């Protein structure tokens, strides 16, 4: 389940170009059982993945 949440957060950040706070809120729609703290953690991890992937392609 964690990988699905992380994948959705990364998708919203990278493909949909959503700001971090919007992704935190949108994850609640997809995974209503997550707390705010959990959603923030997943978005932070996804942000790190998305941006380190971008650096690796330079």
List the helices and strands and how they pair.
Elements: H1 2-14, H2 20-30, H3 36-56
Verbal overview:
The protein is mainly alpha-helical and 58 residues long. It has one domain. Helices cover 78% and strands 0% of the residues. The protein contains three helices and no strands. It has helices at residues 2-14, 20-30, 36-56. The termini are far apart. This is CdiI immunity protein domain-containing protein.
Task: Give structural attributes.
single chain, 58 residues, mainly alpha, 3 helices, 78% helix, globular, CdiI immunity protein domain-containing protein
Quick structural overview:
Helices cover 78% and strands 0% of the residues.
Count of domains: 1
Q: Radius of gyration from the CA trace?
A: 11 Å
Total number of β-strand segments?
A: 0
- Mean of all residue-level pLDDT scores: 91
β-strand percent reads under 5%
Order of helices and strands: HHH
Shape: globular
Protein name: CdiI immunity protein domain-containing protein
Organism: Kitasatospora nipponensis
């Amino acid at each position: 389940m964690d990988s699905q949440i992380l994948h959705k957060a990364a998708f919203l950040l990278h493909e949909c170009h959503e700001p971090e706070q919007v992704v935190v809120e949108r994850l609640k729609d997809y995974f209503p059982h997550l707390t705010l703290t959990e959603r923030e953690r997943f978005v932070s991890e996804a942000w790190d993945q998305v941006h380190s992937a971008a650096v690796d392609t330079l």
